[in-house]
Write a structure and sequence with these properties.
single chain; 140 residues; alpha+beta; 4-stranded mixed β-sheet; 3 helices; 29% helix
């Protein structure tokens, strides 16, 4: 993936985590946030040390970046996104991993022509909070 298309600074990651939205499946979590129009997206990949040694984590990161690079034309523009690799992704083949990544991106509404999945409940913020609850009894 080209250097200009990568999230590299800690403050960029923190901004996406803090102000972005998140969606997940069993293998990946995606955090994303709209940004000023530039005509491209930027992506970062996070793989915890709990997944394995450096060789394993770097291999997963390279695979994820390549999958996103090959499917870049399908992604919406002007977004920052972070893909977090979960432990079940270790056992996936390349094709299964590609399907899982496209699934979580489609679920988040980040593929062109797709809308975000709303699980029937209230939408959550990036940190999982649903916001303030209203007291339904008195309408406040």
């Amino acid at each position: 993936m080209h250097r200009k298309l990568r999230l590299r600074k800690r403050e960029d990651f923190n901004t996406v985590y803090r102000y972005g939205k998140s969606f997940a499946n069993s293998q990946f979590v995606v955090y994303w946030r709209k940004r000023a129009p530039t005509g491209t997206f930027r992506m970062g990949v996070s793989a915890s040390s709990k997944l394995g040694g450096a060789v394993v984590r770097n291999r997963l990161r390279r695979m994820v970046k390549e999958i996103v690079r090959l499917n870049a034309a399908k992604l919406q523009e002007d977004i920052d996104l972070i893909l977090i690799v979960r432990k079940p992704a270790l056992s996936l083949s390349y094709k299964e991993m590609e399907g899982s990544i496209l699934h979580v991106l489609r679920k988040a509404g980040l593929l062109k022509g797709s809308k975000p999945f709303n699980g029937g409940g209230k939408p959550t913020t990036a940190n999982g909070n649903r916001g303030k609850r209203r007291n339904e009894a008195n309408g406040k």
